[in-house]
Specification:
six-stranded mixed β-sheet; alpha+beta; Nuclear Transport Factor 2, Chain: A
């Protein structure tokens, strides 16, 4: 079925710039800048986890992640559709595992490099959904070595 939203000049570029800014803020550790790019009702689909809705839930997730992991992104590639309402990103997560998480191996400051990707929805200049995917078994292998 064709997308009912017609292409709009500049929308693809605006969406790509928004997503690049979001991931640049992530790598810089600027959580306030990240959250400023999200809609109030943002939907966050966590890899191997549940769905969280709203900025408060997203901020709580970030706090949990920042306590257990130190991460930055490299090789970020962003793509968006012609309507500027959907985008995808592929990147390499370069990190260290700082604090043990329930059900995962013990943290000892292990380094990891993990390919990952995300699908994003965009409306009115804000990110309304972030769905992230990576290979959890590969991450476990790396931090267990």
């Amino acid at each position: 079925m064709p997308d009912p939203t017609p292409p709009t000049p500049g929308r693809r570029e605006a969406a790509e710039a928004l997503v690049r800014a979001y991931y640049a803020a992530f790598s810089a550790g600027d959580r306030a800048a990240m959250c400023a790019l999200l809609a109030d009702g943002v939907v966050h689909d966590v890899n191997q986890g549940g769905r969280r809705t709203g900025l408060a839930a997203f901020r709580a997730f970030l706090a949990q992640m920042d306590a257990a992991y130190e991460e930055r992104l490299e090789e970020v590639v962003v793509m968006a559709d012609a309507t500027g309402t959907r985008a995808a990103a592929e990147f390499l997560v370069v990190g260290r595992y700082l604090r043990s998480e329930p059900g995962l191996p013990e943290a000892r400051g292990q380094a990891y490099r993990l390919p990952a990707g995300a699908f994003l929805a965009i409306a009115e200049g804000k990110i309304t959904r972030v769905t992230t995917y990576y290979n959890l078994q590969e991450w476990i292998r790396q931090v267990s070595a």
